[in-house]
Design brief:
Layout: E1 5-9, H1 16-30, E2 38-42, H2 48-55, E3 61-64, H3 81-86, E4 91-94, H4 97-102, H5 107-119, E5 123-128, H6 132-136, H7 140-154, E6 164-167, H8 181-199, H9 201-206, E7 208-212, H10 217-224, E8 231-234, H11 241-253
Parallel strand pairs: 1-2, 1-8, 2-3, 3-4, 4-5, 5-6, 6-7, 7-8
Helix pairs in contact: 1-2, 5-7, 7-8, 10-11
The chain binds 1,3-dihydroxyacetonephosphate.
Family: Belongs to the triosephosphate isomerase family.
InterPro entries: Aldolase_TIM (IPR013785), TIM_sf (IPR035990), TrioseP_Isoase_bac/euk (IPR022896), Triosephosphate_isomerase (IPR000652), Triosephosphate_isomerase_AS (IPR020861)
GO cellular component, one term: cytosol
Length: about 260
């Protein structure tokens, strides 16, 4: 059975001071609790050390939001997997739609990042998802297929249990509009089938596929109850301990 992963993506929010306070609240709620779900926070780079420090020995995990494909060198403003590894992070997000849109990351670059993350012993959380016009024009499956297959081509089936894919329809991110549970399940099953086609059924069953896009306490139960939804990548609702904890509690109450 796949373990739920409840992940907070803080995006460009929560500098060191705020991150410390928020990590403290989250740790107070969840340390010493034997949860079935894996709980992860991905703060901005500058806040990572503070969150790592607070989460040490609590079972709570920390990740990064982005990475470069080289180990070091003349890449001003960039961060490598080695550096993230040294900070004791376990996960790295690759190809968030905001990076695809504002920093022109292509499917190929995102796949290279996923490969680099995986080869470094870190776990990639690769984001895929269509824009509103792509859904309206009924090409959303093609878009998600291309994004997913680019990654499956560079990684291989032995990476399956470490790989996380986050289906985040762009039209649902930060908008308050969520995919219906049926829409989410359809796309999660579609992605799992793509993995099965490339890597075989068994490998496809071990990849976790998270839903992201306005997940909050009010809709988490119906989304997380879907058979192919293995957790959430949560933006806004992860910036408040109460709503993030509520989503974790909901995940803990679901028996699939
Ligand atoms: O982009 C997201 C997580 O990566 C989702 O953000 P929201 O939960 O704020 O819609």
């Amino acid at each position: 059975m796949r373990q739920f992963l409840i992940a907070g993506n803080w995006k460009m929010n929560a500098g060191p001071k705020e991150a410390k306070a928020l990590a403290d609240q989250i740790a107070e709620s969840w340390e010493d609790k034997d949860t079935n779900s894996e709980i992860l926070i991905c703060p901005p780079f500058v806040s990572i050390p503070f969150v790592v420090k607070r989460f040490r020995d609590t079972g709570l995990k920390t990740g990064a939001q982005n990475v470069h494909t080289e180990n070091n060198g003349a890449y001003t403003g960039e961060i490598s997997t080695e550096m993230i590894h040294e900070l004791s992070c376990e996960y790295v997000i690759a190809g968030h739609s905001e990076r695809r849109a504002y920093f022109f990351e292509t499917d190929e670059l995102v796949a290279e990042k996923a490969k680099k993350i995986s080869d470094s012993g870190l776990k990639p959380i690769v984001c895929v998802g269509e824009k509103l016009d792509e859904r309206k024009n009924d090409i959303y499956r093609d878009v998600v297929k291309n994004q997913t297959e680019a990654v499956l081509e560079l990684l291989d089936s032995s990476d399956a249990s470490q790989l996380v894919i986050a289906y985040e329809p762009v039209w649902a991110i930060g908008t308050g509009e969520t995919a219906t549970p049926e829409q989410a399940q359809e796309m999660h099953a579609f992605i799992r089938n793509l993995i099965a086609d490339e890597w075989g059924q068994e490998a496809s069953e071990s990849v976790r596929i998270l839903y992201g896009g306005s997940m909050k306490p009010g809709n988490a139960e119906e989304l997380l109850s879907q058979p192919d939804v293995d957790g959430g990548l949560i933006g806004g609702a992860s910036l408040k301990e109460e709503s993030f904890s509520e989503i974790i509690s909901i995940a803990e109450s679901i028996d699939k």
